[in-house]
């Protein structure tokens, strides 16, 4: 369809227009693809149709691109020819670039110094120009991202690296799951890490970007994975701060397992952080750490009761109770000789277990069989309890005494999840239920 | 329960290659080698690999090889381990591994191992347990596993294990069925499955089955045909597949077929694609659907292909 040269010329023309827009407005922070019918409305709203640029020599420009307030709209009508043209232009530029490289690598090098450095500049900018246009149309075109890394790593300029973060954010604005765009950010950050004093600031901004994107793109694994990756660059104080800062968001997105995993990542970072420092005899961390886990546990219980039947909340609780128990038992080993403290630890463990049992009791009663959420709540609470029995030896001893209002665990599980055969295997192994 | 529309799926896969002028096919062009692996493995599982011209495919694949030894997703692109594994797998399907300079490919992969045992995907240094699996799978097929530090590679994978028993992309990354497949697969190939808490991981994996019978890849997500492969193969490798309801999963996958035009989608009534067609058929193969070739859960290749590689290499 676009095989003949007339169409190719038109496509090149479109590409030139796009590249000119990108050149003239380097602060574009959002790009979207718009159906032609929506385009008319957009342009009318902007009052652009008044000056009727339809007779523009470049063709009817304002029905293909829309650019205002640093937002860019591209008509879906031109996506295919535009993408092909961008790809063609980029691949040509790469071919020339490679030829030039192999030329300067051989013995003719000094003859080419003047010519070489001049043309290298222009080849670099050709590659940057075409790859940028291409990546706005085809976000996972790895070779185009790589070509930018190649050019940027030769120049080693902080400003250029920061520009890459902008481009990647722009690509993520239309394709929030783009693996390549996220990976490009990590490459840039690793490059910056060694030579920039504003790293903490950059990490904070990255974290905010993820939250902004996660708001529009639910349960986005790539985005949250990026945020988890950032934790390795954080200090203990930053981790504590992030944990506090991201709490409200998590409370509003209780079905998003990824945001709770992020909290787990931060908590493990905080806990690990104190393990390493234990030799410096800083037991104040220990108290603070347990406080972090305890607060999260209480908050999680509030959410579980408020948002009935949410899997992610119950899974988060598994993690939290595991942390609590291992904290309590670890301390117990440390003080085994002092029987008074041992008793108090035993006490804390039984308080914890009692609390979990109360939670199970209040959640396992199906108040209304009509509502799936209540059934789900009963199922998750029963499975959670089963999980505690398996993971934590202390629970195994107490399980026999379990007296639930709703009947025993087996009855609840039979009622709510008859298809989960693995649970029956597990129950049978334990017999006593 | 419906039946697998074998003929329709074969037609669909053969037609995909010819549809080149859509926006989708242009933006997928850079990973054509992955597409070739998905399509051709499906054809082989369906017993129809002979409907394609092997020589044409092989000569195209060899044009995707870079001087470094790695393969690109298509001619003129940069090499990456993701495409290198597809090249090796497709050549294995056709019993044509001998066209490769095996040491050259092995050198490329070996060069991507980092000091901590992890693997980068290419020269730009992104690290992911997917790349560990690919490196190990590829080198094992090429009989060059001794070229890397296997112990370090295994330790890195183990360092990506979470408290829930699952695995993520890097240490501390969220558990995800796709990553779990990669980590369990790599541990299976290297004989290191003792690092896995099978009951705990099996529990997490079984909880991926939702009411409709389909499997999701993470908590609270919708079921998706591609997880039939990742979750099932992992469950088989750790010997816990009897913990899920196979009958319901059968039905879910078959409900995702386009019985008129061929192909399988992620969920019933969605648009089909080659990726999900492959994972649907591979999932059915793991469930021992009658008439399909058996697939190996670790190598993601038909069992007869895997046997051929290791049997002939021993001679
Ligand atoms: Zn899928």
From TrEMBL, chain A:
UniProt record, GO biological process: peptide pheromone maturation
GO molecular function: protein prenyltransferase activity
Keywords for the protein's UniProt record, in alphabetical order: Prenyltransferase, Repeat, Transferase
Name of one Pfam family that matches: PPTA
Coiled-coil intervals: none
GO cellular component, one term: CAAX-protein geranylgeranyltransferase complex
Family, as annotated: Belongs to the protein prenyltransferase subunit alpha family.
Name of the protein this chain belongs to: Prenylyltransferase superfamily protein, putative isoform 1
Source organism (scientific name): Theobroma cacao (Cacao)
TrEMBL record, chain B:
Enzyme Commission code: 2.5.1.60
Cofactor: binding details: Binds 1 zinc ion per subunit.
Gene Ontology process terms (BP): endoplasmic reticulum to Golgi vesicle-mediated transport; gametophyte development; root development
A Pfam entry, by short name: Prenyltrans
Function, as annotated: Catalyzes the transfer of a geranylgeranyl moiety from geranylgeranyl diphosphate to both cysteines of proteins with the C-terminal sequence -XXCC, -XCXC and -CCXX. Required for male fertility and root tip growth.
CDD domains tied to this protein: GGTase-II
Entry's Gene Ontology molecular function annotations: metal ion binding; Rab geranylgeranyltransferase activity
Species this chain originates from: Theobroma cacao
Protein known as: Geranylgeranyl transferase type-2 subunit beta
PANTHER family, sorted: GERANYLGERANYL TRANSFERASE TYPE BETA SUBUNIT, GERANYLGERANYL TRANSFERASE TYPE-2 SUBUNIT BETA 1-RELATED
Annotated keywords: Metal-binding, Prenyltransferase, Repeat, Transferase, Zinc
Co-factor requirement: Zn(2+)
Reactions catalysed, as given in the entry: geranylgeranyl diphosphate + L-cysteinyl-[protein] = S-geranylgeranyl-L-cysteinyl-[protein] + diphosphate
A GO-annotated cellular component: Rab-protein geranylgeranyltransferase complex
Description of how the protein assembles with itself and partners: Heterotrimer composed of the alpha subunit RGTA, the beta subunit RGTB and REP; within this trimer, RGTA and RGTB form the catalytic component, while REP mediates peptide substrate binding.
């Amino acid at each position: 369809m676009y095989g003949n040269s007339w169409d190719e010329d038109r496509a090149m023309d479109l590409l030139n227009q796009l590249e000119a827009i990108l050149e003239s407005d380097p602060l574009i922070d959002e790009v979207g693809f718009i159906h032609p019918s929506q385009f008319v409305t957009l342009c009318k709203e902007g009052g652009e149709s008044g000056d009727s640029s339809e007779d523009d020599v470049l063709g009817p420009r304002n029905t293909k691109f829309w650019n205002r307030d640093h937002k860019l709209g591209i008509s879906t009508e031109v996506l295919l020819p535009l993408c092909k043209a961008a790809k063609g232009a980029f691949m040509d530029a790469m071919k020339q670039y490679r030829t030039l490289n192999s030329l300067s690598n051989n013995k003719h090098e000094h003859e080419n110094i003047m010519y070489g450095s001049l043309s290298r500049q222009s080849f670099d900018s050709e590659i940057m120009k075409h790859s940028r246009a291409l990546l706005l149309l085809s976000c996972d075109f790895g070779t185009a991202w790589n070509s930018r890394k190649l050019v940027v790593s030769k120049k080693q300029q902080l400003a250029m690296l920061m520009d890459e973060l902008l481009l990647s954010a722009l690509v993520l604005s239309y394709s929030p799951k783009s693996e390549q765009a996220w990976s490009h950010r990590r490459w840039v950050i690793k490059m910056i890490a060694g030579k920039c004093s504003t790293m903490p600031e950059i990490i904070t901004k990255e974290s905010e970007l993820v939250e902004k994107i996660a708001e529009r793109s639910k349960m986005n694994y790539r985005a949250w994975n990026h945020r988890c990756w950032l934790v390795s660059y954080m200090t203990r104080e930053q981790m504590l701060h992030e944990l506090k800062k991201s709490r409200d968001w998590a409370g509003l997105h209780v079905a998003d397992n990824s945001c709770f995993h992020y909290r787990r990542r931060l908590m493990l970072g905080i806990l690990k952080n104190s393990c390493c420092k234990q030799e410096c005899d800083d037991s104040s961390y220990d108290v603070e750490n347990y406080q972090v886990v305890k607060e999260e546990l209480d908050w999680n219980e509030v959410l579980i009761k408020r948002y009935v039947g949410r899997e992610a909340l119950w899974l988060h609780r598994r993690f939290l109770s595991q942390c609590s128990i291992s904290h309590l038992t670890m301390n117990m080993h440390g003080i085994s000789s002092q029987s008074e403290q041992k008793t108090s630890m035993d006490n804390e463990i039984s308080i914890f277990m009692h609390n979990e049992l109360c939670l199970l009791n209040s959640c396992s009663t199906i108040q209304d069989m009509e509502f799936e959420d209540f059934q789900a709540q009963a199922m998750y609470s029963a499975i959670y309890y089963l999980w505690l029995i398996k993971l934590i030896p202390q629970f195994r001893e107490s399980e026999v005494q379990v007296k639930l209002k709703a009947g025993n665990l087996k009855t609840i599980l039979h009622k709510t999840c008859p298809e989960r055969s693995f649970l029956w295997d597990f129950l049978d192994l334990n017999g006593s239920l | 329960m419906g039946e697998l529309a074998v003929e329709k799926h074969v037609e669909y896969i053969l037609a995909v290659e010819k549809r080149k002028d859509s926006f989708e096919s242009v933006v997928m062009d850079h990973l054509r080698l992955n597409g070739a692996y998905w399509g051709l493995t499906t054809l082989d599982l369906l017993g129809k690999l002979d409907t394609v011209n092997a020589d044409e495919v092989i000569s195209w694949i060899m044009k995707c090889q870079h001087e470094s030894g790695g393969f690109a997703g298509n001619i003129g692109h940069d090499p990456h381990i993701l495409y290198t594994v597809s090249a090796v797998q497709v050549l294995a399907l056709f019993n044509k591994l001998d066209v490769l300079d095996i040491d050259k490919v092995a050198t490329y992969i070996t060069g991507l191992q980092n000091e901590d045992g992890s693997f980068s995907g290419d020269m730009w240094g992104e690290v992911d347990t997917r790349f560990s699996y690919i490196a190990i799978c590829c080198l094992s097929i090429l009989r060059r596993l001794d070229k890397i530090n296997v112990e370090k590679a295994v330790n890195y994978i183990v360092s990506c294990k979470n408290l829930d028993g699952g695995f993520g992309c890097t240490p501390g990354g969220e558990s995800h069925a796709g990553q779990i497949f990669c980590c369990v697969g790599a541990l299976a190939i290297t004989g290191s499955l003792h690092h896995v808490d099978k009951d705990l991981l099996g529990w997490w994996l079984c909880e991926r089955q939702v009411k409709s019978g389909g499997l999701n890849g993470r908590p609270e997500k919708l079921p998706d045909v591609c997880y039939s492969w990742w979750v099932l193969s992992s469950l088989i490798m750790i010997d816990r597949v009897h913990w899920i309801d196979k009958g319901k999963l059968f039905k879910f996958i078959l409900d995702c077929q386009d019985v008129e035009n061929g192909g399988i989608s992620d969920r019933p009534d969605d648009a089909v694609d080659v990726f999900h067609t492959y994972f649907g058929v591979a999932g059915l193969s793991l469930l021992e659907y009658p008439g399909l070739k058996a697939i190996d859960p670790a190598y993601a290749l038909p069992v007869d292909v895997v046997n051929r590689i290791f049997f002939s290499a021993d001679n």
